[in-house]
């Protein structure tokens, strides 16, 4: 069985400040890890994914995440928040031969002017 | 040109009714999915299909019946709707399972009164 835990259901940051969203995974086999973003009343969009290549993964909109096996973590960061980053962020896990994503509970990001 | 489309976007109906949600993808993908997002924004897989064959049925009540007439379409029919079925239903597709990115539709907000 595999699962992800997102620490912090809500994160509030000032515009221009660092965004840090935490994700820890549990998996008995090598995981594939994903971060998706959901803007209000929209579907999910992939930000980035880890698939056992480079441990530091760069995604769209200036986001990146680092896979740390020793900490079973895949935290998402962005150096400088923009107002447009306000959204719901989901960490998800899958593995080879799996036909589903198992999502974390999500983290709501608000950006203060 | 929309990659994954769903109809309708909103669906309001009474308990006991039967309704369908349609999903189409024009990405040439082999795998399609239905996810349910509850009022707390938690996302859970319901079904996944690969090459029109059911791969995952995640303990969904048998009132829910997916149907894949071809690889580009995956429809969801719901019988005898209950209040607890109120949620946002997302269709998604990917080239295959595992580490392939899933592309999500815009969602169908189902409200059962």
Give a written overview of the molecule.
- The complex is a heterodimer of chains A (113) and B (113).
- Chain A is mainly beta and 113 residues long.
- In chain A, 0% of the residues lie in helices and 57% in strands.
- In chain A, the strands form two sheets. In chain A, strands 2, 4, 5, 9, 10 and 11 form a six-stranded mixed beta sheet that branches. A five-stranded antiparallel beta sheet of chain A has the order 1-3-8-7-6, with no helix packed on it.
- Chain A is globular.
- With 113 residues, chain B is mostly beta strands.
- Chain B is 0% helix and 56% strand.
- Chain B is built from no helices and eleven strands.
- In chain B, the strands form two sheets. In chain B, strands 2, 4, 5, 6, 9, 10 and 11 form a seven-stranded mixed beta sheet that branches. A four-stranded antiparallel beta sheet of chain B has the order 1-3-8-7, with no helix packed on it.
- In chain B, a hairpin with a 2-residue loop joins β5 (43-50) and β6.
- The radius of gyration of chain B is 13 Å and the shape is globular.
- At the A-B interface, β4, β5, β9 and β10 of A face β5 and β10 of B.
Q: Secondary structure elements and their pairing?
A:
The complex is a heterodimer of chains A (113) and B (113).
Chain A: E1 2-7, E2 10-14, E3 19-27, E4 32-38, E5 44-50, E6 56-58, E7 64-68, E8 73-78, E9 87-94, E10 102-103, E11 107-112
Parallel strand pairs in A: 2-11
Antiparallel strand pairs in A: 1-3, 3-8, 4-5, 4-9, 6-7, 7-8, 9-10, 9-11
Chain B: E1 4-7, E2 10-13, E3 19-25, E4 31-37, E5 43-50, E6 53-57, E7 64-70, E8 73-78, E9 87-94, E10 103-104, E11 108-112
Parallel strand pairs in B: 2-11
Antiparallel strand pairs in B: 1-3, 3-8, 4-5, 4-9, 5-6, 7-8, 9-10, 9-11
């Amino acid at each position: 069985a595999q699962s992800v835990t997102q620490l912090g259901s809500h994160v509030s940051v000032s515009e221009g400040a660092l965004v840090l969203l935490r994700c820890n995974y549990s998996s008995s086999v090598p995981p594939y890890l994903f971060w998706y973003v959901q803007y209000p009343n929209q579907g999910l969009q992939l930000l980035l994914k880890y698939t056992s290549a480079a441990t530091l993964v760069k995604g769209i909109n200036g986001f990146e995440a680092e896979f740390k096996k020793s900490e079973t973590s895949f935290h998402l960061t962005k150096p400088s928040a923009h107002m447009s980053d306000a959204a719901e962020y989901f960490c998800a896990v899958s593995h080879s031969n799996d036909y589903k994503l198992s999502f974390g509970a999500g983290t709501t990001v608000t950006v203060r002017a | 040109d929309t990659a994954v489309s769903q109809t309708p976007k909103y669906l309001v109906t009474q308990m006991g009714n039967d309704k369908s949600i349609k999903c189409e993808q024009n990405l040439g993908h082999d795998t399609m999915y239905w996810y349910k997002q509850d009022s707390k924004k938690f996302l859970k897989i319901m079904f996944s299909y690969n090459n029109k064959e059911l791969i995952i049925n995640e303990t969904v009540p048998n009132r829910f019946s997916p149907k894949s007439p071809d690889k580009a379409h995956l429809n969801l029919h719901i019988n005898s709707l209950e209040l607890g079925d109120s949620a946002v239903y997302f269709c998604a597709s990917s080239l295959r399972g595992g580490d392939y990115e899933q592309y999500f539709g815009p969602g169908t907000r189902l409200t059962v009164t």
